[in-house]
Each structure stands twice: as structure tokens, then as C-alpha cells.
Amino acid sequence: MNKVDLAALRENYTKGSLDVSDVLPSPIQEFQKWFEQAVDSQILEPNAMHVSTVSNEGKPSSRIVLLKSLDSTGFTFYTNYLSRKGTELAENPHACITFFWGELERQVRIEGLIEKVSEQDSDEYFSVRPRGSQIGAWVSNQSMVIDNREVLEEREKSIVAKFEGKDVPRPPHWGGYRLVPHYIEFWQGRPSRLHDRIAYTLTENNQWKIERLSP
């Protein structure tokens, strides 16, 4: 088997630049602009984001989830509250989400505090999910050990039968989280690894401070 030379894997980024003078005063507005450009570029799942949480023992864990809502208050995703990330967020509400759009040579890193969205918001989003996804939210005890896939398949049959001919309600253990940011960093790849990094930091008077960082 051929061995991959990891040290030789590199790209010379040349597709764009970024300066303090280029960005909007609000990082949410700047993110919206970048996100729309990612969507227009037909990137596969541009709303896929890397969510990092930390347990009360200081142990980090990360996974990919999908951004489902964005407004002036923050970034919202939905999941099982009893999953590993849900348990860790209950212990430690500090989290980080990262977007990487390789086709555009861009990355956005967002740090902040997690809060649960309202039950009404969770109900509204759950109601528009595909029925199969609604069933799946009842079937899976997310992150729990199971003996085999047949366990899931049998439970799915049971849940399908239970809600046959009925609307599927939202499970009480499933809903939304919103990350309310206090730090957002925009990264644009540049040649020779001299990348552009623009950071927004929320100050004590609730204003965004914009600074350029060294790559």
C-alpha cells in the first residue's frame, strides 16, 4: 500500500483577501454575507458546522451538525438534549462552532455561550422536518451504546406503528440550542500561509471591537 506523504499535502490559497476595511460593523451581518456567498457557490451543505463542547472535567469533544437558524442573537441547531453534546452543554455552556468552506478558502470560528431555544421554536422546527427524521428523533437514544443495528430497526417499527395516521409530536428530549457569540473570527486563505484573519470581540459595553490578527 502506498504511503501518503502528509507533509507534502498543501494548497497555496489565492482566491481572495480580507481587511478590516472590507468587513461590516456587525459580525452577524458579515457572516450572513459570507454564508450567502457559500450557498451561491453551490458548496455541499454550506450550513455544516463543527461544534466543540467541553465536559465538566475539561475534556473536549467535537462533531458536525447543521446550522438551522441565524438571527441577530446567534446561531441555532437542533439535537437530542440527552446526547453527549447535550450533557456537556448542561455541564458547561461554553462552546465553539467552526465553518470551513474549502472551495472559497474560508473559515469562520465562533465562540460563545449556549442557551436552549424556546419550546415553541423547537416545536415549529420539528413540525417541518421530514416524517422519517421525526420518527428518528424518537428512535435514537443518541450517544448510548446499543447491541446492534437491529435494535434501532425494531424500535423504528414500534414508533412507526405508534404514530400511524397521526402527527408525530416533538420528543421532550429533543430541541434547539442557540450559540450567542462573544467572539467571531473570519479567516481568508492567502499565499505563503500569510492568511488574513479578522476578529470581532464583544466588549463590556456590548460593542464589537474589530481587529486584524497575525496568521
Please explain how this structure is put together.
With 215 residues, this protein is α+β, with helices and mostly antiparallel strands. It has one domain: Electron Transport, Fmn-binding Protein, Chain A (Pnp Oxidase, Chain A, Roll), CATH 2.30.110.10. It has five helices and nine strands; from the N terminus they run H-E-E-E-E-H-E-E-H-H-H-E-E-E. It has helices at residues 27-40, 84-91, 119-127, 131-139, 149-162; strands at 48-54, 60-66, 69-71, 74-80, 94-101, 106-116, 174-188, 196-202, 208-213. Strands 1, 2, 3, 4, 5, 6, 7, 8 and 9 form a nine-stranded antiparallel sheet that branches. The two termini are 36 Å apart. The model has no long low-confidence stretch (mean pLDDT 95).
Query: What is the first-to-last residue Cα distance?
Result: 36 Å
Strand content: 25-35%
Largest sheet: 9 strands, antiparallel
In the predicted model, the low-confidence regions spanning at least 5 consecutive residues are none
Number of strands: 9
CATH architecture: Roll
Query: Helix proportion of residues, in percent?
Result: 25-40%
Q: Tally the structural domains.
A: 1
Number of helices: 5
Give the helices and strands as they follow along the chain. Answer: HEEEEHEEHHHEEE
**CATH fold title:** Pnp Oxidase, Chain A
Q: Could you state the CATH homologous superfamily?
A: Electron Transport, Fmn-binding Protein, Chain A
Rg result: 20 Å
Shape field: globular
SSE class? alpha+beta
Mean pLDDT: 95
Highest-level CATH class? Mainly Beta
